Amino acid sequence: MIQFTSRRCVLTAVALAFVAAAIEIPVHPLAAQTPAAGTRKKKAEELPSQEAVLAESTVAKLNVAYGDDEKQRLDVYSPKGVKDAPVVVFFHRGEWTRGDKSEVSYKPKFLNENGIVFVAANYRLSPAVTHPAHICDAADAVCWVHDHAAEIGTSPQKIVILGHSAGCHLVTLLALDPRYLAGDGLRPTDLRGVVAWSGGAYDLVAKVKAGGTYAPYIRQAFGDSEATWRDASPVAHVGDAQPLPPFLFVSVEKGNSSHQATEHLAGLIRGAKGQADSRLLENRTHMTAIHLVGAPADATGAILLDFIRRVTR
User: Fold this and answer.
1) Which of 83, 158, 224, 283 is 20 to 30 Å from the Cα of 108, by its Cα?
2) The whole model's pTM is what?
3) Concatenated DSSP letters of 150-213
């Protein structure tokens, strides 16, 4: 039996293949291809700086290994001398193909000054790997934080996970499909909260069928099987993990496809008797929404801070 493994997260290829065989529906290949490197570079140059801003009290431990691959690394930002503090584990953007844990902006300073440990984790990227490698890495990173909580000044009972863009897919799938954390001996209820900050890839089947720029990335990261897309979609697993941790969803443009997808998932969670707060930011884009969290004079950081304090008290 072939197995997908990262450090401890284990899913069998046979199990996933069985699901695919049971509900496979042919889909014609999209004409669109992954955007050219030049296009990605131009877009990257237009983004605001994501360099970490640190507090005077911040103690940073960078490139800590949670697995053997060079991408299985995380950065820890702790307030000096803190103990038993809440911790936020952050997963970055990038359509599962790019992005980096260094893209944290004001979050280390903001959270550390409020007594919260901040961890930013990398995960393996496509096309070097495909699903479920990304989500298994996310599970292993959370497990590392859980197991090393005392060393970094936090508590294993105060873990909140935060994602942006593709990272929103990872944190919601991690909390809704219990198979991934189970590979590390944890359960979704070991998470005190889940924050999806400007995302929309919660139904991969719908995203591919809608076309657009996101569809080729899904094919690159998850393959061409509609059954795999469905099985990797957070909306398909709302009833799998009970009880559910509390969720906070943040969107930036009312009525766009990401906002609609967010509200749909939040509604499913509420329908499953879970907690799902939903907020809509004004005067923010997809990128500035996450970049400006905790920036001077920014009010959106209070949304995140209030949620963390409420679920970890």
Assistant:
1) 283
2) 0.88
3) GGGTEEEEEEEEEEETHHHHHHHHHHH-THHHHTTT--GGG-SEEEEES--TT-HHHHHHH-SS
